[in-house]
Design goal:
Length: about 200
């Protein structure tokens, strides 16, 4: 058994245990931290598979951005978890049955024989380049238009998610930038002209 295989088993075991902890622990903050450990362990597995881009994207995008956002939302919102857990055991067999059916369908689509086919040669190694360099060259030369279209779709989805999640609540002080820009001096400031009077000393 080589050292690389030992590292693979170690990273895979840590990722599996951390993934089970995400759905089993009761504290949402601990679950989010276990998810961070899962992502980092899977990034190590991607590095062993010589997929540097996926490993870097997993650490920077998910661990560095998405999970920080999750932790911020979980720690800032006072979420009552008791109603969310009610009926979990009741619907657990249904969830397991649906998961098994989905797994069988995936295996039918992929095919058992396809799993035994040896993978083809690595195009990055065949071109004599690193994984990130080869992927960037192919992405920005051959697939530039689909890449830009996907970025546009994600941007539209991000902008549309903001008004969909916007909630107006009473009793909260907010700012309206449109009204702040349209304000005039005459509406906010009033000049009053008064006669100046000096200090009169009291006569003895």
């Amino acid at each position: 058994m080589t050292f690389e295989l030992v590292c693979f088993y170690a990273f895979a075991a840590v990722a599996a245990l951390a993934a089970l902890s995400v759905i089993s622990v009761r504290n949402p903050v601990v679950a989010a931290l276990c998810l961070v450990l899962t992502f980092f362990s899977m990034a190590c597995v991607w590095l062993l598979a010589q997929a540097e881009f996926l490993a870097v994207a997993l650490v920077l995008v998910y661990v560095g951005a998405v999970m920080v956002l999750f932790l911020f939302v979980v720690m800032m919102l006072d979420v009552d978890l008791v109603p969310l857990r009610e009926g979990f055991v009741k619907f657990l067999p249904v969830g397991i049955g649906i998961a098994v059916v989905m797994l069988v369908e995936m295996l039918m689509l992929i095919g058992v024989r396809a799993m035994q086919v040896a993978p083809g040669p690595d195009p990055a190694a065949a071109a004599g380049k690193s994984n990130i360099g080869w992927l960037g060259e192919v992405l920005f030369r051959e697939f530039l238009l689909p890449f830009e279209v996907a970025a546009l779709i994600l941007t539209v989805g991000l902008i549309a998610a903001v008004p969909l999640t916007l909630r107006h609540r009473r009793g909260i002080k907010t700012q309206n930038p449109g009204r702040q820009v349209m304000v005039r001096r005459e509406d906010r400031v009033r000049l009053v002209k008064m006669d100046a009077e000096g200090n009169r000393e009291a006569s003895p």
